[in-house]
Amino acid sequence: QVQLVESGGGSVQTGGSLRLSCAASGGSFSFYYMEWFRQAPGKEREFVAATIRYTGSTYYADSVKGRFTISRDNAKNSVYLQMDSLKPEDTAVYYCAGGNNNKYRPDTWGQGTQVTVSS
């Protein structure tokens, strides 16, 4: 069974950048959708970004559009999230996820990585 492991989280100041990575192991990295979600304290988990395996098409939440960039490297079984112009409201645990049917309901989740943006 595929396992997803995130890395790259940390603490930055407003306006800073971070790059999250997600590596798949234990199986085929063949999800149609590879995605990032996040969950802030006291809030529900929300969709951040998704990329499609065969077309490279990308989707973003309005709150991160123009600041975040999702990409994937199928040869390395990895997906990335470049986060620029970070804001305090971006503070959350970020989860990598993969699925085949619905980009808002992935089948497999990573354990998450903390991102903290201070003002």
What does this entry show, briefly?
By secondary structure, this protein is mainly beta.
How is this structure best described in words?
The protein has strands at residues 3-7, 10-13, 18-25, 33-39, 46-52, 58-60, 68-73, 78-83, 92-99, 108-109, 113-118. The protein is an all-beta fold. β4 and β5 form a beta hairpin. The radius of gyration is 13 Å and the shape is globular. The N and C termini lie far apart (40 Å).
Furnish the topology, listing elements before pairings.
Blueprint: E1 3-7, E2 10-13, E3 18-25, E4 33-39, E5 46-52, E6 58-60, E7 68-73, E8 78-83, E9 92-99, E10 108-109, E11 113-118
Parallel strand pairs: 2-11
Antiparallel strand pairs: 1-3, 3-8, 4-5, 4-9, 5-6, 7-8, 9-10, 9-11
- Unreliable stretches covering 5 or more consecutive residues: none
Described by strand count, sense and barrel closure, the largest sheet is: 7 strands, mixed
Overall strand count: 11
Structural class: mainly beta
Binned, the helix content reads: under 10%
| Rg value | 13 Å
Strand content: over 45%
Number of helices: 0
Can you tag this structure with a few keywords?
single chain, seven-stranded mixed sheet, 119 residues, 11 strands, mainly beta
